[in-house]
């Protein structure tokens, strides 16, 4: 199967999953907008993550902190000093690269004699320059020193600086976790691969506070739980997922041990989520920079300590791209394209179609919609042949097609057509809600 990212991009635009930002102005670099189907899919993925974290774990609670925070936070976290990417340019063609993507050991690479991968010219590459990825902005009306703030490059710091408040209001005992979903911003040097690497994106992060010494086991536990989520909840094929452990030259400035969950995208294996042992690096620095005691009092052991933190940090947009890539199926035998979303995250769960626009069938179809719509998204469609209506929904990833025909008026049954197999069964109208609900468990 010729499964390319270009085809997915094109389907996303046509069907209203993802649009390039500011399209009528020729687009805006590395920012994307989510259309009617895309926003439903994205919300469903985010809600599934939120449910998995907070509802399924008694010791994990939620938080929603601001995008703008005290600028000192980013000094303490190391982002002002260390959140850099090395940038190199080709002086001949102007192509721009992240140096670490061109060479494994950038300090010992002879840049002057390197060949530009784009134009092939040798000897025109600049030496790497460090480029900070944080977006700066101005707070208040005056552009004066002291008013600089940053758009957060990760949601994690909002959790760290609130951790004592959260612990105080919930009385949770270690180990406990705080989960947050929100926007993050990075001025990426090279944004590419559609929504994989963008300058504005959403993170779903859970920071797990443990006793020092119990951190290694907590990391093992969370690695497994996070991998299971992709298979069990998102329905992603397990053979397309793997772990990658960060070597010494890849480890972020805060990490003792780090693993990525990678998905085999149409453009190759790439990170979707990071699971990191951040130790007490962040809390220690926040203690130092804020002057506040951030230690946790462990009543059982009668001791105070800075907790170690295991972080699970997923990109919502990357996860969505993994879902899109995994679901995209060209059913050549039947000449159709199908998005095989797991029903749990499908934007629309069912389309309800009257076979014809008369004989009371539209009214009957609408009455079924009334029963289903309090529970999940459903759609009414009476335009075109029934086959065309089904194919339209195959591209949208709608798992169930329900057709109301003349027999429905006689005996109260409808056909249910299954998206992937195209098989059809007849059921009593009363059973439909339960059948769809069961597929969402
Ligand atoms: P990469 O190496 O791809 O730049 P990273 O290791 O810097 O990613 P983290 O800082 O660990 O990423 O961020 C956690 C998650 O946030 C990533 O696994 C990814 O899903 C998401 N993410 C990070 N940067 C971006 C981006 N520019 N666009 C979309 N998602 C991103």
Decide which structural class fits the backbone.
alpha+beta
C-alpha termini separation: 31 Å
Helix content: 25-40%
CATH-level-4 superfamily name of the largest domain: Bira Bifunctional Protein, Domain 2
Shape: globular
Count, helices: 13
Low-confidence residue ranges:
none
The molecules bound to the chains, other than polymers, are: adenosine-5'-triphosphate
How is the secondary structure organized here?
Blueprint: H1 5-15, E1 18-20, E2 32-34, H2 36-55, E3 60-62, H3 72-76, H4 79-82, E4 84-89, E5 96-98, H5 99-102, E6 129-132, E7 136-138, E8 148-150, H6 156-170, E9 176-185, E10 200-210, H7 215-232, E11 241-245, E12 257-265, E13 268-279, H8 281-290, E14 296-298, E15 303-305, E16 308-315, H9 316-327, E17 328-331, E18 336-339, E19 350-354, H10 361-372, E20 378-380, H11 386-396, E21 400-404, H12 406-411, E22 413-418, E23 424-428, H13 429-439
Parallel strand pairs: 3-9, 19-20, 19-21
Antiparallel strand pairs: 1-2, 4-5, 4-6, 7-8, 9-10, 10-16, 11-12, 12-13, 13-16, 14-15, 17-18, 21-22, 22-23
Helix pairs in contact: 2-9
Bound molecules: adenosine-5'-triphosphate.
